[in-house]
Amino acid sequence: MSRKAVHEPSLDWTDPECPAARAVDLVGDRWSLLVIRDAMDGVRSFTEFQRRTGIARNILTDRLHKLTAHGLLTQRTAASGRRQEYILTDAGRDLFPIIVTLRQWGERHTFTKNEPHSTLVDEHGTRIPELVPTSADGTVLDADNTHVRKAR
């Protein structure tokens, strides 16, 4: 299945041939990922994004504009008809495994053993299993058994 590229033609890519670098160019700052995280958690309004993240209004305005311009969020009129709300697009929802992996890394490396923290659970209340990349034959993949094949 082919997917539409999520970018503006005028964007200067840090490393034009690297998918990871392009992704970081789009969502690699702290505020963008927190906005995406909160949108995944059902936040829709500017006010609620600001309340949950503590982000300054001007920075939030910039990030919402950037995420909308790059096709990760879309705007629509709220049911009340009085305000705009922000909704994840398919491209925005595709960041779910990234958010999960960041959460899991954070659980392992940024909390002490018994320090309380939020937990991501499925619809039955069961904690989500750790995401681990595997090869077609089920071998666990990591930096020691993978490499990047350059475009040229």
From TrEMBL:
Statement: the UniProt record of this protein carries the keyword DNA-binding: yes
Q: Where are the coiled-coil regions?
A: none
**UniProt xrefs under InterPro entries:** HTH_HxlR, WH-like_DNA-bd_sf, WH_DNA-bd_sf
Q: Which part of the chain is the HTH hxlR-type domain?
A: 18-114
Q: Which keywords appear in this protein's UniProt record, sorted alphabetically?
A: DNA-binding, Transcription, Transcription regulation
Kindly provide the name given to this protein in its UniProt entry: Helix-turn-helix domain-containing protein
What is the top-level taxon of the source organism? Bacteria
